[in-house]
């Protein structure tokens, strides 16, 4: 990675894409309640095929975009901080909220899941039971937090590379040169279409190689993840790293192309997925088309936000600040509210809308009146210690004057 200090600018478009997608995750998981192909333990009998299309469509691009953003901001942080400071920042912003939610809301959700399949023990009786131990040993404790679990080793790898490679390393300069060359080669519209095909091919090859590793589908160690799952999103992190190393490459990725909205719409509509009923060749072809659809959607999102959300503003800043809370809290709330709606005989569209709005609205309330006002909550759930600055800004706004200049906020994979 380059040691050249990056300009202290805020990438409102990339941060905005990440923030909006975190809000969109609420609808994704609310849709799971009503999707016939993925019935939840809430046993809601209201089902419609539209929600299969919705959740599988969202899964194509939401998490891959997060990994791109993670790689991008990891490089920016490492260009502005020491490796030790970087790891402390990631520990606070990623590790602390991960542990906090895993031990609280995720355990509440898992207990409700246990009850919904016939468990009779109290919450305290469930803790320490065989079912409880299985939750932790099998790795399912993470639920939606698997993204953070996968991201932490990538951050660690980035820090190791930064610390191990000399400043004048050929590998460092070569990485930048390669990124710059890719920017030049694939800047035209036709060449960019070829680039999408190459990205899909690289992802397909990554999947196929990872699947051949002995024990690839088994947990690396109890409570963690399988090797296959860990490396499946790594290419998106790598391209994010390359985009941060080379402004020219980033410009090529986010350049608006008139045909991309149509390509993204087609990818979202057709949603190519491999399935066990297909033969080997057909499965490989579908895997390739799946990865092509994913890259098309991810890069379209980056282009869209670069075109329409580049300037930022107060609303964008608020959205970015609330995004992590939305990601952390919503999953358990969707499950709890989903359980409450099992016996409700409303129109399925209305029920889905109520569930989504109720979960998102609750998170916004928690974020505004707890996370942004109480120091320990801000630290545990957002990994931040800026309560005094928030209070000063709020007081200045109430008095109609400008708040004192605060220390520039460092962008990160999660804000």
Can you give a write-up of this model?
By secondary structure, this protein is mainly α. The chain has one domain. It is built from 18 helices and no strands.
Question: Strands, helices and their partners?
Answer:
Blueprint: H1 12-32, H2 49-80, H3 83-103, H4 105-116, H5 123-126, H6 130-137, H7 146-164, H8 170-185, H9 189-211, H10 227-232, H11 234-245, H12 247-254, H13 260-270, H14 280-308, H15 314-340, H16 348-371, H17 375-382, H18 387-399
Question: In brief, what are we looking at here?
Answer:
The protein is an all-alpha fold and 415 residues long. 71% of the residues lie in helices and 0% in strands.
Secondary structure category: mainly alpha
Total discrete domains = 1
The outline comes out as: globular
SSE order, as H and E? HHHHHHHHHHHHHHHHHH
Residues in β-strands, percent: under 5%
Helical amount: over 70%
Radius of gyration: 22 Å
Q: What is the first-to-last residue Cα distance?
A: 21 Å
What is the β-strand count? Answer: 0
SS element count, helices: 18
Largest sheet: none
Contiguous uncertain segments of 5+ residues? 2-7, 405-413
| Residue-averaged pLDDT | 90
Q: Which key phrases capture this entry?
A:
mainly alpha, 71% helix
């Amino acid at each position: 990675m380059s040691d050249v200090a990056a300009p202290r600018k805020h990438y409102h478009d990339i941060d905005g894409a990440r923030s909006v997608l975190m809000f969109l995750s609420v609808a994704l998981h609310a849709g799971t309640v009503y999707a016939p192909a993925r019935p939840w333990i809430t046993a809601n009998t209201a089902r419609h095929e539209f929600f299969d299309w919705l959740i599988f469509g969202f899964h194509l691009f939401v998490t891959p975009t997060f990994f791109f953003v993670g790689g991008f901001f990891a490089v920016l942080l490492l260009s502005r901080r020491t490796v030790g400071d970087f790891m402390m920042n990631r520990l606070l912003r990623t590790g602390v909220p991960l542990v906090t939610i895993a031990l609280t809301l995720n355990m509440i959700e898992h207990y409700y899941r246990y009850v919904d399949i016939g468990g009779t023990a109290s919450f305290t009786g469930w803790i320490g039971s065989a079912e409880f131990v299985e939750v932790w040993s099998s790795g399912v404790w993470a639920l939606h937090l698997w993204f953070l679990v996968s991201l932490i080793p990538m951050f660690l790898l980035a820090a190791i590379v930064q610390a191990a490679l000399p400043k004048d390393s050929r590998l460092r300069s070569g990485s930048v040169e390669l990124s710059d060359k890719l920017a030049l080669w694939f800047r035209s519209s036709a060449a960019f279409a070829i680039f999408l095909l190459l990205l899909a091919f690289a992802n397909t090859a990554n999947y196929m190689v990872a699947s051949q590793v002995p024990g690839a589908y088994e947990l690396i160690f109890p409570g963690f993840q399988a090797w296959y799952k860990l490396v499946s999103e790594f290419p998106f992190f790598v391209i994010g790293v390359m985009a941060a190393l080379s402004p020219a490459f980033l410009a090529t990725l986010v350049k608006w192309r008139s045909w991309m909205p149509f390509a993204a719409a087609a990818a979202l509509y057709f949603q190519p997925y491999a399935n066990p009923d297909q033969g080997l060749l057909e499965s490989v072809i579908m895997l390739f088309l799946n990865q092509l659809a994913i890259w098309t959607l991810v890069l379209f999102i980056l282009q869209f936000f670069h075109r329409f959300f580049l300037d930022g503003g107060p609303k964008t800043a608020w959205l970015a600040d609330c995004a992590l809370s939305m990601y952390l809290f919503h999953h358990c709330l969707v499950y709890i509210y989903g359980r409450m709606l099992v016996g409700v005989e409303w129109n399925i569209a209305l029920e889905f809308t109520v569930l989504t709005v109720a979960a998102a609205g609750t998170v916004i309330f928690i974020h505004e009146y707890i996370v942004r006002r109480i120091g320990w909550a801000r630290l545990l759930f957002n990994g931040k210690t800026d309560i005094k600055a928030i209070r000063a800004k709020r007081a200045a706004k109430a008095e109609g004057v400008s708040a004192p200049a605060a220390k520039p906020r460092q962008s990160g994979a999660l804000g």
